[in-house]
Amino acid sequence: MRTxxxxxxxxxxxxxxxxxxxxxxxxxxxEKSRHCEIAICPPFVNIAAAVEAARGTRIGIGxxxxxxxxxxxxxxEVSAPMLKSxxxxxxxxxxxxxxxxxxxxxxTVLKRTLAALEAxxxxxxxxxxxxxxxxxxxxxxxxxxQFAGGIGPLDPTQFxxxxxxxxxxxxxxxxxxxxPEIASEAHGFIRSQVGTKFGADAAGAVRILYGGSVKPxxxxxxxxxxxxxxxxxxxxxxxxxxxxxxxxF
Length: 249
Ligand code: 13P
Description:
Blueprint: E1 5-9, H1 16-30, E2 37-41, H2 47-54, E3 59-63, H3 80-86, E4 90-93, H4 96-101, H5 106-118, E5 122-127, H6 131-135, H7 139-150, H8 156-159, E6 163-166, H9 180-198, H10 200-205, E7 208-211, H11 219-223, E8 230-233, H12 240-247
Parallel strand pairs: 1-2, 1-8, 2-3, 3-4, 4-5, 5-6, 6-7, 7-8
Helix pairs in contact: 1-2, 1-12, 5-7, 7-9
Bound molecules: 1,3-dihydroxyacetonephosphate (13P).
């Protein structure tokens, strides 16, 4: 059985004070939630506040990106050992916004993932097609390419420690959620890629999250799909009641 994971990606939202405030309200709402793992990924500057606020709870904290070198003259970057030493458990890698605005490629996704694994972080590696790619019938080839370049080169032990997030770009922040059927089909395709590369056991064990306009009112239908093992939530993770409803789907 795969334990669901509900992860919040806060993107570039919230001050340090708002971070602490969120946890005060959110913690009691998920205190009894034992059916899934919970992660929250604030901006780098608020990770320390989040770790402090989440201490003693089952809520894991993560980064939204990570650089592949351990240290060095890389102005503005943050390394995996730095995230780990702050108390991070998770890190999001290859989010479509990184691919779109910050020149992320499948090759750099792989480098970041290897660095995160080496530091003992759990990578949430994102894949997903744009609207143009979907409408052009290229969804599977894009997912296959992202998998082959960013994930496929991992060894089986490394692969066993990652989570994959399927985030169709056209569903992110648009209010246009993939239907459970569309999401399920893509998850099935990604799982088949895992099976081909890493074998049936790995395909059965890997968690694949869905991301893109997940809200309290659609999470249940998404989670009812056999291949969907949790959600990577943007906007709806910013408000304690709304993210708690998602966690407690
Ligand atoms: P929204 O939930 O705001 O659509 O964002 C999804 C996302 O990008 C999570 O990583």
